[in-house]
Design brief:
Elements lengths: L1 E5 L5 H21 L22 E7 L2 E10 L5 H5 L15 E9 L11 H17 L3 E7 H9 L4 E3 L4 E3 L2 E9 L2 H11 L12 H4 L9
Parallel strand pairs: 4-5
Antiparallel strand pairs: 1-2, 2-3, 3-4, 5-8, 6-8, 7-8
Length: 217
C-alpha cells in the first residue's frame, strides 16, 4: 500500500482517482454515515473546498482505492473556518500560513470491519504527518467527535482543543489542532508499526501504477 498526494492540475490518471475518491466519499459519508446535507444527484461528494488549493492523500493497494483524506491550507477558504467557525474559540498556535485543515478522512468499510487498528488507517495517519512535515506546516486542524481526538492522543500526538465541544447531529464534536513534528511522526509510526515512509514521491503515481481502463479513453 502507498499513499499518493494529488493536487490540481492533475494528469488523466490522477483525475480518474479523484473521481473515484469523490464517489467513494459520497457512499461513505452520505449513504453510510447519513450526511444528508451533502447528498448530490450525481453521487459525488464534492464541496466548496475541493479546489486547486486542496491536496488529496489517496491510499491505494495495487490499483484499488481503499482510503483517503484532504488538506486545505488555513490561509485559503477551508471547512473549519467557513462551516464550523463557532467551534473555534481559541487562537491558532501560529500563523494560518503555517497550518492546514485536515478533512474527509476515510477508509473503505470492507477494509476496516472487525479490526480495531486497520493497517489502512495506520498508513493514512503516517502519511498525513509525513505530508505536513514535507509542506513545512507546524500544525494541523480538524473537526471530529471526542473519540477521534482520543484516538489521536493514543498515537502519541499533542492535540489541543480550539474550544468546547458542541452537539452536531447529536454527537459531541469539537475543533482541535495537532502539533506537527518529527516526534509526532516517530510516535505514530511506533504505535502503528509502520517503519517505512507511506507517502509516495510526487509525480510518480502515473509511473508506478497501471492506468485503469476508465482512464485510457
Amino acid at each position: 500500500m502507498r499513499v499518493y498526494s494529488i493536487r490540481a492540475p492533475a494528469d488523466r490518471y490522477s483525475i480518474d482517482l479523484l473521481e473515484r475518491n469523490f464517489r467513494l466519499r459520497h457512499t461513505i459519508f452520505v449513504d453510510m454515515q447519513g450526511w444528508e446535507a451533502i447528498r448530490r444527484p450525481d453521487r459525488r461528494d464534492v464541496d466548496a473546498f475541493d479546489t486547486e488549493d486542496a491536496t488529496h492523500l489517496l491510499l491505494l493497494d495495487g490499483d484499488e482505492l481503499v482510503g483517503g483524506s484532504r488538506f486545505t491550507p488555513l490561509d485559503k477558504p477551508n471547512l473549519l473556518q467557513t462551516v464550523f467557525p463557532g467551534l473555534v474559540q481559541g487562537a491558532f498556535p501560529a500563523s494560518p500560513s503555517l497550518g492546514a485543515d485536515w478533512t474527509r478522512f476515510y477508509v473503505r468499510p470492507d477494509r476496516r470491519e472487525g479490526r480495531r487498528r486497520a493497517p489502512e488507517s495506520a498508513a493514512l495517519f503516517c502519511a498525513m504527518m509525513e505530508y505536513a512535515l514535507l509542506e513545512g506546516y507546524c500544525f494541523i486542524t480538524f473537526v471530529s467527535t471526542i473519540y477521534m481526538l482520543e484516538h489521536g492522543v493514543s498515537m502519541g500526538w499533542h492535540i489541543t482543543p480550539l474550544g468546547a465541544p458542541a452537539l452536531i447531529d447529536g454527537k459531541p464534536t469539537l475543533a482541535a489542532w495537532i502539533e506537527v513534528s518529527e516526534e509526532a511522526l516517530a510516535n505514530v509510526r511506533r504505535v502503528t508499526g509502520q517503519t517505512a515512509p507511506m507517502l509516495a514521491e510526487r509525480g510518480v503515481i502515473h509511473q508506478s501504477l497501471p492506468m485503469p481502463a476508465a482512464a485510457r479513453h
